[in-house]
Specification:
The chain is an alpha+beta fold. The chain has two domains: 81 residues, no CATH class; 39 residues, no CATH class. It is built from four helices and four strands. The structure holds zinc ion.
Length: 137
Amino acid sequence: MRIWFEKMAWKMQRFMMGRNGLDDLARHLYILGWVFIILNIFFNNAGLYILSLVVLGYALFRMFSKNVARRQQENTVYLGLISKPKRTWLQWQRRWKERKTHCFFRCQCGTMLRVPKGKGEVIITCPNCRRQMTKRT
Ligand SMILES: [Zn+2]
């Protein structure tokens, strides 16, 4: 039985050779497809069901595609599109986690400044533009 599993794993590896595999876009499409399927349980909508099949089908197509250069190009574009919202989300997560120990201020240049809480009136110098401001922490 163990040999059979090893043989199957080897066959699978050979099958996936030269194919794109699971990249970020395919993974997110896969998750999105399952979200649509779960939503469809509650709303029972044919359009939602078809949409989930299309999204999952496209995720599978991306995984098994042999045009790796094109798929990587699409993945790079996708990662570029989600980089800003992802950074904002991570920033909010950090602010929430450190809300009891740090104060956050935004400089006029757009840089987020983090200073420890409970230090009274402080002069903050932006490391990006060297602008100074007085804030109460
Ligand atoms: Zn600044």
